[in-house]
Amino acid sequence: MKRIIILTLIIFFAFTNIEALTAPKYAEKEIKAIASDGFNISATLTYPKIKNKKEFPTVVLLHSLGYNSKWWESLPNDLLAKGYAVLAIDLRGHGKSVFNSKLTKNSWKNMKNSGFAKYPDDILAIIAQVKYENSKKVFFNNWAIVGADIGASAGVLAADKMDIHPKTIVMISPVVKTKDLYIPISMAHLDGVDFLSISGTDDIASKKAESYLTKFAQNEFLTYTSDSKTTGMMMLKNDTSLSKMITEWISEYLN
Questions:
Q1: pTM summary value
Q2: Can you give the pLDDT of all 255 residues of the chain as single tens digits?
């Protein structure tokens, strides 16, 4: 009888330990927000599952034109491993953010510049929804932005409208103006925000943009040239060192 009890306990603890090891380390929530014109904007919020922890430094990810929030390679996992929350947004016309107020699909390929101009407010709508749904947790007192091409532009413009600015903004393949999203003036408003700008080896357009944008940054504006010959989010795929580098950069600012 004792042997049976001991064997049962061994099996119980073995399965308990396996369950503990395989338990998800992160909480993941799908965030939905309705833009001012009724467009449906989607995002995914992921953060570490740490008992009684109420505050998470947060990194907002804003993808390239024509991509979506699933294209960030290892960057989300690298950020989560550092203890940050990650808010990956599908910009209007991309990923799951394709339904207008009439629930008709609307792709970025068919959008006019007036649609792209709503990107900053779409981002603010998602952030407001995160705050509403997670009122017991603070996500945006200590935060950063990583954006690629149009995502970087939208991020700068959205940051300018926030009461608490991000600690730093990482721009991958930056542009001065795209789809009527013009960022120099907003950059000049972002006192205390350091910028890291990343361009590819052959990306002449982004290098020119960097030379121009550095005049408007009120704090540090550091540039980095990747060995990758691509642009935007594809650099993260072709240069696997970038995710770690971006994570380390952000870790200098978020605490």
A1: 0.90
A2: 545 444 444 444 444 444 344 456 999 999 999 999 999 999 999 999 888 887 899 999 999 999 999 999 999 999 999 999 999 999 999 999 999 999 999 999 999 999 999 999 999 999 999 999 987 777 899 999 999 999 999 999 999 999 999 999 999 999 999 999 999 999 999 999 999 999 999 999 999 999 999 999 999 999 999 999 999 999 999 999 999 999 999 999 997
Position of tokens 């730093």? Answer: 168
Longest CA–CA span in the chain (Å) reads 80
Would you say residue 242 lies in a domain? yes
Give, in order, the Cα–Cα distances in Å from 198 to each of 84, 184, 226, 227: 22, 17, 7, 11
Residue 183 contacts by C-beta under 8 Å, 6 or more apart in sequence?
153, 156, 157, 176, 177, 213
Number of neighbouring beta carbons within 10 Å of residue 26:
15
Q: Considering the domain boundaries, does residue 2 fall inside one?
A: no
**Count of structural domains within the chain:** 1
Query: 143-148 and 221-226: which strand pairing?
Result: unpaired
Give the domain extent around 210.
25-251
Would residue 161 count as lying in a domain? Answer: yes
The CATH number for 69's domain is 3.40.50.1820
